[in-house]
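This follows on from our talk about sequence and fold. Can you supply me with one protein entry, sequence and fold together? Could you add the entry underneath, on a fresh line?
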Amino acid sequence: MNQEISFIGNTRIISRLRAITSKGKLSHAYLFSGPEHCGKFLLARYFAEALSEGKRSFDVSGTCSSVYVYIVEPECIEKKGVKKQRSIDIEHIRDLQKIMSMSPLPGAYRVCIINDAHMLTLQAQNALLKIVEEPPKRSIIMIVTHRSGSLLSTLISRCQNIIFSVPSFQEARSFLQYLSLSSADFASAWKLALGRPGLFVRMLQDESYRLKRLKSREIIESIFSASLRERLLIGEQLAQDGTYAEEFLLLWIYLMRDNGIKYWKNGISGIAQYQCIERISAAVEALKTTNANARLILENLLISG
């Protein structure tokens, strides 16, 4: 499979970073921003690997395995059977500072990637800002996030922004020649992946994940006809894994928008659909940005949905 499929709609960014690498005109900090599952973290890793090894070019193929790239990201914790991401605190940034002060390989750079940077606490962001303002020699920080609005404006202003976007279906279809899929199967899988290359590639590579997405769609399509008990059970199961719950809700929104006429024919008015999408969106926001009880958020949504 052509690895560039992970960057559908953003291949111009690959060309831009390759040009930066070959010319050696590097910034001390980069911000990879844009929607989820569009290749930000993966491309940052390919870019970082080349710079940390002193290369003047890079390919987006194979696995990223450089031991010279330091990665900071939220830990996934499980408490009472519920999985959730933990914030990146100031101690992580202090550790990063120690790593960044070490000398890189001859002719190379010491590179650090902060993934899901919107999970940085305010203290951690301020500590990171000081590093970005006075970076160690031959060091580069790459900040990756799909919620750049959660970062300090002063931190954003000191980074070179690399903005990713969601590809159109027409752009995605250009990669059909590299896949063993019919046009119809491709279209169905692309919708199931919300039009996001990262989810699409994961579905192609992981059959269990593809089946999980199909099961999610099946559950979503049954929600409006489900009993109260069945809805509460769905909420209880979703609350066990915060990441899966968010993916489930985003798929629900996508299907509501994509199948609006179908829902209308089943007696759900356009206004009711819009209100339902608003409630789902609010639930996603609450799961991502608050410490509220996930089960209560989901059960309340499913009862009212």
About this structure: The chain has 14 helices and seven strands. Residues 270-289 form the longest helix (20 residues). The chain has two domains: 3-163, 206-304. Residues 206-304 form one domain.
